[in-house]
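Q: Hi! First time doing this. I have a protein sequence and I read that you can turn it into a structure. Is that right? Here it is:
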Amino acid sequence: MIFFLLVLHEVMQLLTFVCCLYLKLKKMRKIVLLPISLLFSVVVLGQTTTTETLNPRKTITELEAESPKEHALVMELAKTKGSFISVIPAKKEIQFDGTISLEKAEMVDPTKMGLTIPNQDQYYKIEGTDKMLVIYSVFTLQQLSTDEAH
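A: Yes, that's right. Below is the predicted 3D structure, encoded as structure tokens:
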């Protein structure tokens, strides 16, 4: 966004310069440049980054402490959509977080498998198959619950 504003500022300065040359009026450059400069500085100063917009990834324990309602919603969603089984992609190198049996992988709910809901998606190789289990993170489950609400 800031890059765009800098480019816009340069374009406006160039247009101002061309207008001044074309009309041969030195006052026009000052008249046009002042409002553009003020607008540019207001827009740049208005740009802020907050931790809320960065949405840091929380652990399930942090979520439980900060928002019991959202924690309950995530735990309920994990029962039916907490994980899924997929074929291991041939062209992509995957760092597995461990192995798991097919019986456990079919349970879907990570807590029933004896796992906690992680703060980033985890991948487990399913023993004796060419498949893997993907355990959704707290963040992914929150996104899924938001999508379902809309």
